[in-house]
Amino acid sequence: MKEVLVVSQTVPTSAPSPVTETQIDNAITTYLQQANTLRARFITGPPGLFPEENLRFNRFGQEPYLLISQFKLHELSPQIQRRLPIYLTKQFRVQVELDSKWFWALTRDVSISSSTMRNWYLFPAFETLFAAHLASFYTLISSAYMKLNRILSEALPQPSQDLLTHGSSNILMYICYPVLEGILKLVLRNYVDENGKVTAPFAVGTNNYTVNTRISDLSVYLHALEANAETLVSKPDLQTDLKDFRQLIETDFAGPIAALSSTGTASADGWDWIYSLRNVSLHGAIGWQLRSGLITNLICMLAWHVFELSEISAAATSISQRFAMPFGMLWNSYYPPN
Questions:
Q1: Residue 304 to residue 76: CA distance in whole angstroms
Q2: N or C: at which end does the chain have fewer Cβ atoms within 10 angstroms?
Q3: What is the largest CA-CA distance in the chain?
Q4: DSSP 291
Q5: Which helix (H) or strand (E) holds 208?
Q6: The predicted structure's pLDDT at residue 112
Q7: Where are the domains of the chain?
Q8: pTM, to two decimals
């Protein structure tokens, strides 16, 4: 059963849409202006009732203001697709939006066309991350869903049902950080191996990392790429994209970052904060912390910089052709999401 919003997405074309980043920026600005008001009518409660990313994929009249209602994500230019995570994360001020759901599905499908990604040792975990985000097992008051739920309850053992209904958020909380660290090492594969051991020397500010040094702090990789992506990996746009993503984090999470600085992390920034989240989650310091959507958007930004332009183009063409095929031909695809 496809999203109602796919109507404008089903027109097959291989030519990229002449959408500018200014149009995306304006669309997000309008979304934030309208969606906050609409959400207040849909959900009421005291401030902080829904912390972190607990609101996800709700519909409350905001659909006309979504990016997917105005643009075909798979036809945007690669430059915009690489920067889209910045704009999608801005939407988190309202909720983890359907736009992110669609972009995550697209990212997963494009990754299938990337030889670098497919040969990456963490690619199964990468796919699991998106599967956990996009899996759904809803109990809704409709005959179709009631029938589906009944069939699944009869066909699946209770542990499988529990994993579908309750496990996704827990899987996301723990898998997103290793995947982030892994894809950073993938981008920096000429300088560090999968265990974090330096194989070629590089510097981050005044810190020099020599051969055989072991790096366990993923913020080092983020700082290195933001400062030196042009020279380290020949990706100058990645420097700008990471800087803008970090500055967005610092705008939206200024309080937690300031609190982190007060604990002894001098002049902590957005990358230090992300590393702090990784530590408290993976070491069991807190029972609940959900920033998997934000981390996934950062992973997507890095993945789109890994994709070759030819791979993005091939995937876009394949997706456009897929839209012209019968529904049964959508085997092994996540995009568009159900």
A1: 12
A2: N
A3: 63
A4: -
A5: strand 207-209
A6: 93
A7: 1-114+308-338, 167-306
A8: 0.88
